[in-house]
Design goal:
Elements (H helix, E strand, L loop, with lengths): L6 E2 L10 H7 L15 H21 L6 E4 L2 H19 L7 E5 L4 H12 L3 E5 L9 H7 L4 E5 L13 H12 L6 E5 L11 H4 L3 E5 L10 E5 L14 H4 L7 H39 L3 E3 L10 E6 L4 H10 L2 E2 L15 H5 L4 H5 L1 E5 L6 H21 L12
Parallel strand pairs: 1-11, 3-4, 3-5, 5-6, 6-7
Antiparallel strand pairs: 2-8, 7-8, 9-10, 10-12
């Protein structure tokens, strides 16, 4: 019997902590334990470390250090951005008047949840389609604009299929509208894109941008929101002056330090990591094409992240395939980790126009800097074996009477 190999292919859910990042943060869990808000030397040492990390995170996205607000992760960053803008607008209005928000049909569950909540509070929300390639059309954004549109929130790269959205073009549209004197802000969730592709907030033209440390080989529990200078937000956590009074609470110094180190390594090594990840992904996808039929590569016809491959396997439940691969030592995902446990098929795959069957049969493979070609070959062998077995057992299996997808 062949030896089981441990292969982690779920880097879009989270990444292992880089040893160099761990080494950077460890002193701030031991001897450098000061509160960054304290005025004595222990506190000032911690403050200096937070400031260094802020500069590193800012450099990753082409921002100024004072435009970076540290939070607990991407979900909180999205909440601060969307709630912060909409609640402040209501507070400033002469009369309580809800407005209009534009988003897309494939946003992360935190943004989808916020959009649903805004609707319950009386806001109008437009969810733009993405068509079969998984990409928002700029012309649809333009057509969706209304006189009371306050915020556009569209992710930079999708977390399930990896498609890159035209944020720079949408940013140009927003600037065009603001030049006419209207108040309109652009937020983008860049959690999946950061460290994978180059980001420059000036070129994107966004006002708010969300980041998460644990997608960058840093620990969970730290994230950031880019807030362009001049953009005001209603804080969501009150009780202190931290983060320029935009996010109260004692700073998580060790995790922030780790975030800064991870951001620096991501910026310095981005090109090499991208080449490595895309080579593994392409090798994997070629192997799947050669060995299996009745499959669909979701989002593969558009510009996408270099490390991610999402495939729908006909006549198979994704959960069954995931568990079977896990028994072979291979970790993959049926979609967003933040949506795991739900019985509903992926709304992202459904938004591509696919059937419920294809949505339920979708698996996300996401590669990382420590994966090897041997990992891919092992995965291909196990995948073919498992897919063939599950199809033989599936009551939906009609492969012999159908043409390949």
């Amino acid at each position: 019997m062949a030896e089981t190999r441990k292969v982690y292919l779920d880097h879009s859910a989270t990444t292992p902590v880089d040893r160099r990042v761990m080494e950077a943060m460890l002193p701030y869990l031991s001897e450098k334990f000061g509160n960054a808000s304290s005025v004595h030397s222990f506190g000032q040492e911690a403050r200096a470390a937070v400031d260094r990390a802020r500069r590193e995170v800012a450099a990753l996205i082409g921002a100024r250090a004072n435009e970076v607000v540290f939070v607990s992760g991407g979900t909180e960053a999205n909440n601060l951005a969307i709630r912060g803008v909409t609640e402040l607008a209501l507070a400033k209005a002469a009369k309580a008047k809800n407005g209009h928000v534009i988003t897309s049909a494939i946003e992360h569950s935190s943004v989808r949840g916020l959009a649903d909540d805004l609707e319950k509070r009386g806001w109008q929300v437009t969810r733009l389609p993405v068509y079969d390639d998984g990409v928002v059309r700029v012309e649809d954004v333009r057509e969706a604009l209304q006189p009371d549109t306050l915020l556009i929130s569209i992710m930079l790269a999708n977390n399930e299929i990896g498609t890159l959205q035209p944020i720079a073009e949408i940013g140009a549209l927003v600037r065009e509208e603001r030049a006419k004197g209207r108040q309109l802000w652009l937020h983008t969730d860049a959690v999946q894109a950061a460290g994978r592709v180059a980001i420059d907030v000036e070129k994107l033209g966004c006002d708010l941008l969300s980041l998460s440390a644990h997608k960058l080989y840093a620990p969970k529990g730290s994230g950031a929101l880019f807030v362009r200078r001049g953009v005001r937000l209603s804080p969501q956590i009150l009780g202190g002056h931290q983060e320029r009074e935009r996010r109260a609470g004692t700073e998580n110094v060790s995790s922030i330090v780790a975030f800064g180190a991870a951001a620096r390594f991501a910026r310095e090594e981005m090109e090499l990591r991208s080449q490595h990840d895309s080579a593994l992904r392409d090798h994997f996808e070629q192997g799947v094409r050669e060995r299996l039929e009745q499959i669909i590569f979701n989002g593969a016809c558009a510009r996408r992240l270099p490390h991610l491959s999402n495939i729908s396997f006909r006549f198979i439940e994704g959960e069954g395939l995931l568990i079977s691969l896990d028994l072979q030592g291979i970790a993959v995902s049926t979609g967003s980790a933040c949506s795991s446990g739900t019985l509903e098929p992926s709304p992202v795959i459904r938004a591509l126009g696919h059937t419920e069957e294809l949505a339920r049969g979708a698996i996300r493979f996401s590669f990382g800097k420590d994966n090897s070609e041997e990992d891919v070959d092992y995965t291909l062998t196990a995948l073919v074996r498992v897919v063939e077995k599950l199809r033989r057992l599936s009551p939906l299996n009609k492969v012999s009477s159908l043409q390949p997808v």
